[in-house]
Amino acid sequence: MDLLERLNLDMKTAMKNRDKDRLSVIRMVKSSLQNEQIKLGRDLAESESLAVLSREVKQRKESLHEFQQANREDLVKKQEAELSVLNEYMPAQLSDDELEAIVKETIAQTNATSKADMGKVMGAIMPKVKGKADGALVNRLVIKHLTNESNQ
């Protein structure tokens, strides 16, 4: 079952259960997916749907951070609730150990030796971990490993 079908089923369930908050999030995601379909003029591939979903999660995380800094607990709780619903549709996240292994393997494959090779490494890693790991975390790990290797 693709993401849009799953969202439709969950939307019906949320309507039956009168779960307004969940329904609102599902409708926002469906709207984003449909806007992307219109923009591309075709049905979305699974990877494109995942990219849209990842973008929604990233927006919520950024908003959550801003609201926390502004001490807006009411808005923080709303963003956390939305993130919780969105995370149900995301693929399982890679563990730190798995991500670390992928980073090391990709650095070895690309023969990267310094921070100057960052773009090459990130370009090779991101398709492997798309939707399964936070890009900022991947970036930090790559920097850590590239600076460790250049110091050795």
From TrEMBL:
GO MF annotation, one: carbon-nitrogen ligase activity, with glutamine as amido-N-donor
Q: Which InterPro entries match?
A: Asn/Gln_tRNA_amidoTrase-B-like (IPR003789), GatB_Yqey_C_2 (IPR023168), YqeY/Aim41 (IPR019004), YqeY/Aim41_N (IPR042184)
Pfam family of the protein (one):
YqeY
Annotated transmembrane regions: none
**Highest taxon of the source?**
Bacteria
Q: Which residues form a coiled coil?
A: none
PANTHER family given in the database record: ALTERED INHERITANCE OF MITOCHONDRIA PROTEIN 41, MITOCHONDRIAL (PTHR28055:SF1)
Name of this chain's protein? GatB/YqeY domain-containing protein
